[in-house]
Amino acid sequence: MNKDLRRAIIAGNWKMNKTPSEAAKLIEELKAAMPEPDCEVVVCVPAIDIPAVAEAIKGSDIRLGAQNVHFEASGAFTGEISASMLAEMGVEYVIVGHSERRQYFGETNETVNLRAKAAINAGLTPIICVGETLEQREQGITDDLVSMQTKIAFNGIEKEDAINCVIAYEPVWAIGTGKTATAEQANEVCQLIRDTIGVLYDDETADGISIQYGGSMNAKNCAELLAMEDIDGGLIGGASLKAPDFSVIIEAASK
Ligand code: PEP
Question: What are φ and ψ of residue 207, in 5° steps?
Answer without folding.
Answer: -70, -25
